[in-house]
Design goal:
ATP19; elongated; 3 helices; 2 domains; membrane
């Protein structure tokens, strides 16, 4: 069987192969991006981490959330001290 496209007879197997190859090419192009890590323009990652800590507000809506956030902050501070000593 064939279809008439722009005045020419085109077989169905050519249409199906064209569809499959076009779909595969589009999928490959969509997922084929490079995996480079973005380095902040401010310098090192430590400087970027400090900027994030200073600029991102953490607001607790209840006393339980405030206690949880305090314990998380204390844990992070302890781990940073451990990492600085090693």
């Amino acid at each position: 069987m064939s279809y008439v496209i722009f005045g020419r007879a085109i077989k169905t197997e050519y249409l199906s192969l064209g569809t499959i190859l076009t779909t595969a090419a589009i999928a490959y192009a969509a997922t084929g991006s490079s995996k480079k890590q973005h380095v902040p323009s401010g310098g090192s990652s430590e400087e970027a981490l400090k900027k994030v800590k200073d600029t991102v507000p953490i607001n607790a809506s209840s006393s339980e959330e405030e206690q949880l956030l305090d314990s998380i902050k204390n844990f992070i501070a302890e781990e940073e001290k451990k990492a600085a000593h090693h």
